[in-house]
Structure formats: C-alpha cells, structure tokens
Design brief:
The protein is α/β, with parallel strands linked by helices and 405 residues long. It has 11 helices and 20 strands. The protein has a domain of 172 residues: Acetylglutamate kinase-like (Carbamate kinase, 3-Layer(aba) Sandwich). The structure holds adenosine-5'-diphosphate, aspartic acid (ASP) and magnesium ion.
C-alpha cells in the first residue's frame, strides 16, 4: 500500500463533470489499495475573477484581505471534490491549508511555507478517508490565511508529499506532461519522458507555466521526484527528478517564453564608478528583482543603461529610478512593455559550444531582432519584440531539432 499525493489544476476541476472525473480517478487509486491525498486548485478562471472583483471595490486592495478572498477559490473545490467522492461511496474529507497543518511566514499573497504538521491528514488517512487539501494556501503563526503566489497549488502538493513522506507525487494538468516548448505555441513540441530539477526550474522560472518555479525549487531541495501528467488520459507523463549522467547528452531540453517582462532604459547616464551600484542598490532596497542588465559602450563620458523587471514591478521600479536618474543628470527614463524573453535550457549546454551562435542564426533567418542577451551555465536568454515571440520560439525549436526524438 502506497501513499500517493495527486494534485489537480484549475482546468482539471474546471466544471462539475471534471470534478466527477477527478473523483473517479482518485477512487480507482483507492480501490487499487493505496492511500490518496489530493491537492486541488480553484476552478479555472476563479482566482482571476476574484482578483478582478477585489480591484472593483479597491484599486489597491489590502494583501491580508486579498488572501482571505483568494483562498475561497480552493475552498470551493475541496468541498465539491469531497462531495463527488462521497457520491461514489468513497470516504473523503476536505481540509483547508491551515487544517492540513501548513504554516507559512506572514508575507501575504506570496507566503513561504515555514513548516507542515500534517497530524490531521495522517489521522484521516488512517481512518480510511481520502483527504482533499486546498492548494495555494496556509496560515501564518497567528492563524491569518495566507496564499503561496500564483500557481501555488503545485507547491502545496510537493511540500505535502515531502512532509508526508509520500511514495509518489503526481501533478495532473491539462497537457500530457512537460514538453520541449509550450504545446499551445509550438505545434511540433515533443513530450519529454524525463527532465532534471535544474532544467525544470529554469524552464519554469523563464516562463513555462506548467509548474510553479518555487515548487520545483522545493522539490529539488527536499529531493521529491514527481510526475507531470494529464488528468484526461492515462499516458505516463514526464518524470521530474535528479539529474543523471545520460541527461547531459541532450544539449537543449526545452524552450520557454516569458511575456511578463518590461524593459527600462535610462539614457545619457554619466559614465563613472558607483553609478550602477547606486541605481541597483535602490531597486534592491525595495526588493525588486532585476533580471537582464545592459550597459552600452560609453560615448563622450555618457552611457545608456537598460534592464528588465517583471511587468507587475514596472511602476515601482520607475518610481525608484526616476528621482535618481534626475539627480544624476541622466536623460528621461523610458519603458518598453512589448518585449518577450526567449530562453533555451539544457544541462548539456555545460559541455557543448555553439548554442548561442545557432540561436542567433535562427533568429536572424526569421528577421527577429535581439535587444538583450544573457547566458548562464545551462541557459541562454534573449529579449526580443513581443510580436516576434511565437515565431522565434518556433524557429528556435526547429533549428535545434527539438520536435524529433
Ligand atoms: P494547471 O491549472 O493544471 O496548474 P497550468 O495552466 O498552470 O495548469 O499549466 C499548464 C499549461 O502550461 C499548459 O496548458 C501549457 O499551455 C502551459 N505550458 C507552458 N510551457 C509548457 C511546457 N514546456 N510543457 C507543457 N506545458 C506548458
Ligand atoms: N488558484 C491559484 C492560481 O490560479 C493557485 C493554483 O491554481 O495553483 O494561481
Ligand atoms: Mg498551474
């Protein structure tokens, strides 16, 4: 008898029929003699709808109240899933994040899990129940409801699998697994049988929405292998696990695109020591994550500095940068929101050369202009025009032969 954690995302529980389908899947596992803890997301569109509602009553909603509101999405689904299981004659109990023992820090809307004491989960499993846990939520040490950042149900599932020492963790979603690129954008994308934590982490942080990046970080840290698979069929999915020797033979594992970036340009910055430190220290002081940075060659003692931030952080970044730029005597700060970051990821890049050259060639052949470049050991990213993103993704996918197994 194994203990299996199964997570079902928004589309998989998107309507009553799908919830009944999820219940039937859980029941099959239960009938095969296994214990099941199911983590469920809000029905698709519900979290977005709640955020919209909040903004209609307050343009800058309080984050504590936001968490109280957002947590209701998952709370609806746990009750409905438990009811669907009960309709099949299956013993099932729903638990909120707090009831499942998930304690977080106090950073509302993007809380980190501090610890999990799943006493109640163990008791209910021992009594023969399927336990349905609300994803994406916990409570801080004072008992206030917190949420774990968008896509956070993935994190709930992986953290619970670690805390419960589960034998298996399965992430059920609306695609068959992790693909070489988003199958909605690249028609010839190929499903991967396996991928290393590091590659999955890069793809997720660089825009592949299939897994929340923090959940992959957690899985890597606590060595929780998991599979990503479809809730609509029985295909085997993709195994995400520790890297093996053989994995390095593949140069590029996958491609992702992030359309949520914005570029800020500060023209005519005096070119002298300490200027960059001043700008980026100010951004760090307000916890702003800066991604790519480019400083142009100096002409007559002046240079241009450009950098990217998440679109959500753009207003905050401008607010910090503008007074400093003014004080330095730089030109007017400008921003560009119609950009995209295209990234190639693969641990094989450590031992292969020429990847950048091939990527640039593929982009050139398709008249895609490169605005910024950054590389690390296992990835290369370029900033391009948002309008070119899907074309560039398809071009790079073809250039590296990713569709062919
Ligand atoms: P869930 O609601 O189950 O959490 P998400 O919508 O968060 O599902 O993630 C699944 C989606 O991720 C897919 O529908 C797909 O369009 C997208 N996606 C992006 N990149 C990839 C990729 N490399 N492989 C698979 N899916 C991807
Ligand atoms: N419902 C939350 C969201 O839409 C969490 C999740 O689905 O994982 O972000
Ligand atoms: Mg998701």
């Amino acid at each position: 008898m194994a203990l299996i954690v199964k997570k079902f995302g928004g589309t998989s529980v998107g309507n009553p029929e799908r919830i009944r389908n999820v219940a039937a899947r859980i029941q099959r596992t239960r009938e095969a003699g296994h214990h099941v803890v199911a983590v469920v997301s809000a029905m698709s569109g519900v979290t977005d709808g709640l955020i919209k509602l909040a903004r209609e009553v307050n343009s800058n909603p309080n984050e504590r109240e936001m968490d109280v509101l957002l947590a209701t999405g998952e709370q609806t689904t746990i009750a409905l899933t438990a009811m669907a299981l009960q309709a099949l004659g299956q013993k099932a109990v729903s638990l909120t994040g707090a009831q499942a023992g998930i304690v977080t820090d106090g950073v509302h809307t993007k809380a980190k899990i501090a610890n999990i004491t799943p006493k109640r989960v163990h008791e209910l499993l021992a009594a023969g129940h399927v336990v349905i846990v609300a994803g994406f939520q916990g409570a801080n040490s004072e008992g206030a409801i917190t949420t774990l950042g968008r896509g956070g149900s993935d994190l709930t599932a992986i953290a619970l699998a670690a805390a419960l020492k589960a034998d298996l963790c399965e992430i059920y979603t609306d695609v068959d697994g992790v693909y070489t690129a988003d199958p909605r954008i690249v028609k010839g994308a190929r499903k991967l049988d396996e991928i290393s934590y590091d590659e999955m982490l890069e793809l997720a942080s660089l825009g592949a929405k299939v897994m929340q990046s923090r959940s992959v970080e957690f899985a890597k840290k606590f060595k929780v292998p998991f599979s990503v698979r479809s809730s609509m069929n029985d295909n085997p999915g993709t195994l995400v696990k520790e890297e093996t020797r053989k994995m390095e033979d593949v140069v590029i594992r996958g491609i992702s695109v992030d359309k949520n970036q914005a570029k800020i340009n500060i023209p005519k910055v005096p070119d002298r020591p300490g200027i960059a430190a001043r700008l980026f220290k100010a951004l760090a002081a307000v916890h702003l994550n800066v991604d790519m940075i480019v400083q142009n060659a100096s002409t007559e003692g002046f240079t241009d500095i450009s950098f990217t931030v998440g679109k959500d952080d753009l207003a905050k970044a401008r607010h910090v940068i503008e007074p400093i730029a003014k004080e330095m005597g730089a030109g007017a700060v400008a921003d560009y929101q119609k950009i995209a970051k295209l990234s190639l990821v693969g641990i094989g890049m450590r031992s292969h050369s020429g990847v950048a050259a091939d990527l640039f060639e593929a982009l050139a052949e398709n008249q895609v202009n490169i605005q910024m470049i950054s590389t690390s050991e296992i990835k290369i990213s370029v900033i391009i025009d948002a309008a070119d993103a899907d074309r560039a993704m398809n071009a790079a996918h073809a250039k590296f032969g990713l569709g062919i197994s």
